[in-house]
Design brief:
293 residues; alpha+beta; 3 domains; 4-stranded mixed sheet; 8 helices
């Protein structure tokens, strides 16, 4: 089991520069990768995203890269000579036609910066990747270890809640026969009272028994209890799977649906109290599951 929260750090140091990568992970329904890269490594954005997505399936992953050194900020001044020459010709003609007396200076050219370009020295992508891969890989491994460690803690918490859930479900199992018997007796008493009160003599027996079967089915919560136990068993097994967060959340929804229907059918104050406890436990399970990848 893997948590979606964690932190990792990786450092690569050469004689002239140091690259530090920070990797942080938070909760998210999906995989959401955000990058903060120095300009030098912006061309590697897609490659970094792909690399991260191979290691993680869920969570908001924030990757920050910091560089300190002398060899990482080399720039070249690139001059578009042809554009500058055309600009000079146009400015000279404009000066002549408008009668300007001041001579052209370099500051006049700087007003038209389109022809003057400052660019980082172009590097091969593979070389850039060789620089950033070691600290990135180290940071992601540390992040994975952090998430797995936190995941084990979460699993232990889930197991505690699950054992309590089993105990409460067992209490309902013990009360089931008595609760169903009591409900049937109440139903029988209501039917007898109706017959006496309204002096019913002629009834449609087929319709009567159809309605009786329907009412008896409404007070029998055996199926709901059995399905609840199946979901608990399924939950326990699913905790051992990878990337189980979404599946566990779905199982919790199903458990909540079953205990809600069961409580309505049971018409028992004792079972209603236990059902409230079970709902609270399911909610606690869901709170923890929001952190699971």
């Amino acid at each position: 089991m893997e948590s979606m929260t964690g932190f990792g750090k990786g450092v690569f140091q050469s004689d002239n520069y140091t690259i530090t990568v920070y990797a942080k992970s938070l909760n998210s329904k999906y995989l959401d990768i955000s990058l903060k890269l120095p300009k030098r490594y912006t061309f590697l954005e897609e490659r970094i995203r792909k690399f991260v997505s191979q290691e993680f399936k869920r969570g908001k992953i924030e990757i920050q890269v910091k560089c300190v050194g002398t060899d990482l900020s080399q720039k070249e001044v690139l001059i578009d000579i042809e554009l500058a020459r055309n600009l000079k010709t146009s400015l000279t003609r404009l000066k002549s036609e408008l009668g300007f007396e001041d001579p052209l200076t370099f500051s006049d050219f700087l007003k038209f910066r389109e022809y003057l370009l400052l660019e980082e020295k172009e590097e091969e992508l593979d070389k850039l990747w060789e620089e950033i891969y070691p600290p990135l890989n180290e940071a992601l491994k540390a992040l994975k270890a952090s998430r797995l460690k936190e995941g084990e803690n979460l699993k232990n918490v889930l197991k505690i809640y699950l054992e309590k859930l089993k105990d409460e479900t067992l209490q309902i199992e013990k009360l089931k026969e008595k609760a169903i018997k009591d409900s049937k007796e109440k139903l029988k008493g209501r039917i007898d009272k109706l017959f006496k009160e309204f002096n019913l003599r002629e009834i449609d027996e087929n319709r009567f028994y159809q309605e009786l079967v329907y009412l008896l089915d409404k007070i029998d919560f055996t199926e709901e209890l059995d399905r609840l136990k199946v979901h608990i068993f399924h939950f326990e097994n699913t905790m051992e799977e990878e990337d189980c967060g979404k599946k566990l959340d779905f199982i919790c929804q199903e458990m909540f649906r079953e205990i809600n229907t069961l409580s309505n059918k049971a018409q028992s104050s004792e079972i209603s109290i236990i059902a409230v406890k079970i709902k609270e436990l399911i909610e606690k399970l869901r709170e923890q599951i929001q952190n699971i990848a």
